[in-house]
């Protein structure tokens, strides 16, 4: 039994107990495809998602060398701790030990790191899946709910604000638990939740994804790590690259993702949008000053 279990170690263990039964094969496939999320799953969650029984899970883990699900989950968590994303305060302390006063070199290196993120995003993006999401969001029979905590709030605001040019029924959810329930009245199965949440994760956003999942709505999560607690409750996840060797993880790809998604939604709208109505409202309320007035 391995005390620290990463994906490669798991695959090595699994190969040793082949051949699998049909249920074990399904479980093995699910574990490999969702490995980064497993430390957040309870055994009931895993059984429901993998469509196998708890007894099958127990027998399978015994074959791998674990005394039960708790021991397996402990090994997963130990690996998660070992590979956790560095928090800003720890990154700041580490950077303070390194004195490099060449500003131009540092700036160019940072820009180069961001460029690499864009290349990685373009390479990894499943455009067909993103197009499906754009079609869901463009469907005006649905209400689109958007949420994001802390710095991810900026992504949520940017997305929800510009989405209103393409459609109505867009709700930016508050994180104030006193106000939140009022915005969740009347949720329907065809509705969509778009949750932005970069590491570290927010418990209110987690509760929101749980609630929408319980209502059988579509939930899409945009984050920057496969190891997150939202996978159990989401229909789709977009894990965006963010590491630029800086104190803070970059949100550049988050904004690129938002604007690409908005571009695809607008294509789906077929000129059935709110541009003219919004422009007339801006003029009526004199929202933007005009040069020369």
Would you summarize the structure shown here?
The chain is α/β, with parallel strands linked by helices and 293 residues long.
How would you portray this structure in words?
This protein is an alpha/beta fold and 293 residues long. The longest helix has 22 residues, at 103-124. The termini are far apart. Helix content is 53%, strand content 8%. Helix 8 packs across helix 12 and helix 9 runs parallel beside helix 12 (252-269). It has helices spanning 7-16, 22-33, 43-50, 54-64, 69-82, 88-96, 103-124, 127-138, 152-163, 180-183, 203-214, 252-269, 275-284, and strands at residues 144-147, 170-172, 192-196, 218-223, 236-239. It has a five-stranded parallel beta sheet with strand order 2-1-3-4-5, with helices on both faces. The protein contains 13 helices and five strands.
Count of helices?
Answer: 13
Q: Sheet bearing the most strands, described? A: 5 strands, parallel
Q: Would you tell me the overall average pLDDT?
A: 89
Q: What would you call the structural class?
A: alpha/beta
Instruction: Report the β-strand fraction as a percent range.
Output: 5-15%
For the record, give the distance between the C-alpha atoms at the N and C termini, rounded to a whole number: 76 Å
Counted beta strands: 5
In spatial order, strands of the major sheet run 2-1-3-4-5
Give the helices and strands as they follow along the chain: HHHHHHHHEHEHEHEEHH
């Amino acid at each position: 039994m391995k005390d620290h279990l990463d994906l490669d170690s798991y695959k090595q263990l699994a190969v040793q107990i082949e051949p699998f039964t049909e249920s074990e094969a399904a479980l093995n496939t699910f574990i490999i495809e969702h490995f980064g999320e497993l430390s957040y799953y309870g055994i009931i969650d895993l059984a429901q998602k993998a469509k196998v029984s708890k007894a099958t899970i127990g027998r399978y883990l015994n074959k791998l060398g674990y005394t039960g699900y708790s021991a397996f989950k402990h090994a997963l968590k130990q690996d998660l701790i070992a590979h956790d994303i560095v928090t800003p305060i720890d990154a700041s302390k580490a950077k303070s030990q390194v004195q490099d006063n060449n500003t131009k070199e540092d700036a160019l290196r940072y820009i180069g790191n961001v460029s690499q993120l864009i290349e990685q995003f373009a390479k990894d993006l499943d455009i067909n899946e993103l197009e499906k999401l754009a079609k869901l969001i463009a469907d005006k029979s649905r209400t689109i709910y958007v949420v994001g905590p802390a710095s991810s709030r900026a992504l949520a605001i940017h997305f929800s604000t510009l989405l209103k040019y393409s459609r109505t029924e867009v709700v930016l959810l508050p994180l104030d638990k006193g106000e939140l329930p009022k915005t969740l009245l009347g949720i329907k199965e065809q509705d969509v939740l778009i949750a932005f949440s970069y590491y570290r994760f927010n418990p209110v956003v987690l509760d929101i994804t749980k609630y929408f999942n319980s209502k059988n709505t579509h939930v899409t999560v945009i984050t920057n790590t496969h190891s997150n607690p939202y996978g159990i409750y989401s229909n789709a996840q977009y894990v965006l690259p963010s590491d630029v060797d800086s104190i803070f993880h970059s949100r550049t790809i988050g904004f690129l993702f938002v604007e690409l998604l908005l571009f695809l939604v607008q294509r789906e709208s077929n000129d059935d949008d709110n541009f003219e109505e919004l422009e007339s409202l801006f003029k009526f309320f004199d929202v933007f000053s005009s040069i020369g007035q």
